[in-house]
Each structure stands twice: as structure tokens, then as C-alpha cells.
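Slide 14.
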Amino acid sequence: MKKRGHILPNACPDCGSDMVLKISKYDPFYGCKRFPKCKASHGAHGDGSGNKWGEPLGIPVDSETRKARQDAHAVFDRIWNQRMASVPKGFTVRSARREAYEWLAARLGIDPDKCHIGMFDKPTCERVVKVCQGIDYKYVHRWCKQHKQMGVA
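Slide 15: predicted structure.
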């Protein structure tokens, strides 16, 4: 668990300065030490994240990559948020998200442990948007079930 004022050395993706852990009205975040000259910021784990509180959410990146990550999350999160109407009772949001990331890792050809949009560069985020087009959670759930039965996933 990090404390307010914790520093990420040389982490600002825009100017190379340190980033400092701050607390907004809602969540902790890292802001560039040179604010207001540099307005770079990066999210951090907040309430309910226990020992991870204040840890960076992924890797700080420039504004273009940040926008690409937001676009990737918008398309990808839509898939696992559809789980309500398409999976058995008792299946949780966490389970749906885990399955969606397993499917995405396979589609991208990367290690499932390294499959997190907050770690992706811009080209990988653009691939996420492409592979998620037209995919729904029902498809992802079936894919995971088949791969588990085959002992692949």
C-alpha cells in the first residue's frame, strides 16, 4: 500500500519528471510533479483494492496511447459487461472479466498473465479494438468453455 506523496521516479510520459501520488475527490492518481506546466496524470488503485491501494494502474503513457487504451477498454469492457443476460446464475462479474481476458490473450497471442489493457502500447490497443468488433460475451463464454474442456485454456 502506497501513501500520498509516493513518487514514481522519471515516470511522466510527457516530460520525464517524477509523478507523485495524489488523492482526488474519488480515487488516488499520479500527477506530474511539474503540474500545471505538465498536465500528465495516471490512475492508481483505489477503494476496495487492499494492499494494492495507490499502485499504478498499468504503465504511465503519453496522451495518444492513453486515448488508445480508453478506446480499447470501451470495446473490450462492453463484451464482459454483457454477461448478465448470457451466463448461468451465480457467474460473477470477476469471472466474466477473467474469461474475457483469457479469450483476448489467446486472440493477441500473448501470455494471459501479461494481458491487461493498462500495460498495452498503442498498436496493441488498436489490435484489441479490431479483434473485439462484433464479439459478444456469449461467444467468449462458449470459447472458454470449449478450450477448458480440451485442456487448452
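Speaker note: Helices lie at 63-81, 83-86, 93-108, 122-132, 137-149.
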